[in-house]
């Protein structure tokens, strides 16, 4: 699995994926900037109490809450933006690294978009629920890896597996190898905790899960 992760990391920055990488990154930054602008607008709309110390205190509290809430939203936003490119990434890696295997079939655009939106909503809800525990030193990082490792391992394995299998067959295969997909998800979640690299998480996750699914299929 470590070799697959290192291979995926190298291929994430390779020439065939470079255009997708920069386009996805640019769109992600635009979306996050719009979120930040909306947050600033909300802060500016806070009522004034004509008491300087109270106004300053409330503003700092609001900014702190805004930042704390915005941080868990980074990965869901990245995932949603990148969802438009993941099928093409999987196809490129399959054709490049596994040319002898039958090619996968791209999912319909509306179906892929619905799956991406559903996953994004689940990711946001679960991380918002876990947010109070993320503020506890000592368990926050481990909890983030476990919670998101399960969600990310499941989502990206199904994304890749559904290119070759029916939904029922993909679910059966994932259940049969749930430990391996969970550990792969933890690797992806760990990648998502690295500043700046976390913006490339969906690309890395897709490439990594292509290799993981191929290894599972051969097993």
Key structural traits:
219 residues; mainly alpha; 9 helices
Let me know the number of strands.
0
Structural class: mainly alpha
Helix content: over 70%
Compute the separation of the termini in Å: 13 Å
As residue ranges, the low-confidence spans are none
Radius of gyration: 19 Å
**Count of helical stretches:** 9
* SSE arrangement, N to C: HHHHHHHHH
Basic shape: elongated
Number of domains: 1
Q: Please summarize the sheet with the most strands.
A: none
Instruction: Compute the average pLDDT.
Output: 79
Strand content: under 5%
Task: Describe the protein.
It is a single chain. By secondary structure, the protein is an all-alpha fold. The protein has one domain. The protein has 9 helices and no strands. Helix 2 packs antiparallel against helix 3, helix 6 packs across helix 8 and helix 8 runs antiparallel to helix 9. The longest helix has 31 residues. It is elongated and about 70 Å long. The protein starts with a helix and ends with a helix. The mean pLDDT is 79.
């Amino acid at each position: 699995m470590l070799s697959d992760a290192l291979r995926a990391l190298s291929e994430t920055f390779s020439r065939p994926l470079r255009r997708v990488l920069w386009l996805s990154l640019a769109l992600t930054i635009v979306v996050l900037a719009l979120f930040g602008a909306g947050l600033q607008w909300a802060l500016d709309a806070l009522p004034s109490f004509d008491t300087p110390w109270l106004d300053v205190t409330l503003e700092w509290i609001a900014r702190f809450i805004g930042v704390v809430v915005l941080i868990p939203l980074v990965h869901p936003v990245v995932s949603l933006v990148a969802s438009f490119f993941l099928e093409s990434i999987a196809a490129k890696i399959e054709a490049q690294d596994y040319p002898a295997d039958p090619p996968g079939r791209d999912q319909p655009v509306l179906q892929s978009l619905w799956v991406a939106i559903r996953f994004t909503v689940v990711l946001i809800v679960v991380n918002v629920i876990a947010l109070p525990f993320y503020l506890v030193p000592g368990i926050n990082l481990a909890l983030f890896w476990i919670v998101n490792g399960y969600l990310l391992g499941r989502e990206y394995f199904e994304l890749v597996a559904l290119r070759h299998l029916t939904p029922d067959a993909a679910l059966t295969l994932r259940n049969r190898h749930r430990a391996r997909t969970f550990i792969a998800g933890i690797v992806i979640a760990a990648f998502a905790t690295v500043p700046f690299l976390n913006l490339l998480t969906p690309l890395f996750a897709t490439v990594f899960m292509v290799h993981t699914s191929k290894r599972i299929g051969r097993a």
